[in-house]
Amino acid sequence: METASEAFTSVRYIVLAYLVASNRTLLLCFSQRLVDTFNFHGYASLTPNGDKIDPRLKKGEHRELEVTSVMYAAQAGALSTLQRYKMNGMDLSVSNYDGRSPLHVAAAEGHYHVIEMLLECPKCSVNSTDR
After folding, report:
1. Cβ distance 76 to 110 under 8 Å?
2. What does the buried/exposed string (b/e) look like for 11-50 if buried means 16 or more CB atoms within 10 Å of the residue's CB?
3. Are 63 and 79 in contact (CB under 8 A)?
4. Is residue 116 assigned to a domain?
5. Overall number of domains in the chain
6. Which terminal CB of the chain, N or C, has fewer other CB atoms within 10 Å?
């Protein structure tokens, strides 16, 4: 037969085991949400992913990088790059500080295949003006 102090000790161990197990579950849930929300891998930042936040970027820096990437691809005539950006959910109707869109840049460079692809995007407007 157990004494009162032995019974108390065994109950205390059961409670401690429960707390440790529940904290592990909470920790695993927290860790999973953290990984689902933030982009921590160095190579993952090479492809734009609208679902995850890159904690290394300052506020607004993600949009600037997106605009620069789309504009450079339009200027270079990189159709496959623009198609990949479109499949990743990037907005191809963005404009830079001058109000210039990728459609403006592709037209200025004479990249007809890029112009055709951009005109198929529902958000890209042919009526946008730059300064």
Report:
1. no
2. eeeeeeeeeeeeeeeeeeeeeeeeeeeebeeeeebeebee
3. no
4. yes
5. 2
6. N
Most distant CA atoms of the chain, gap in Å: 92
**Residues 114 and 77 placed together within one structural domain of the fold:** yes
The dihedral region occupied by 3, where left means phi > 0, alpha psi between -120 and 50, and beta the remainder, is beta
In a domain, residue 87? The reply is: yes
Token pair of 90, please? 């990037």
pLDDT digits (tens, 9 = 90+) for 100-113: 888 888 988 999 99
Least confident of 12-21, 31-40, 100-109, 121-130: 12-21
Dig out the tokens for 80 from the structure: 């496959």
Task: Look up the domain containing 9 and give its range.
Answer: 4-37
Residues in the chain: 131
Distance of CA 6 to the CA centre of its chain: 55
**75, part of any domain:** yes
**CA distance linking residue 36 with residue 14, whole number of Å:** 33
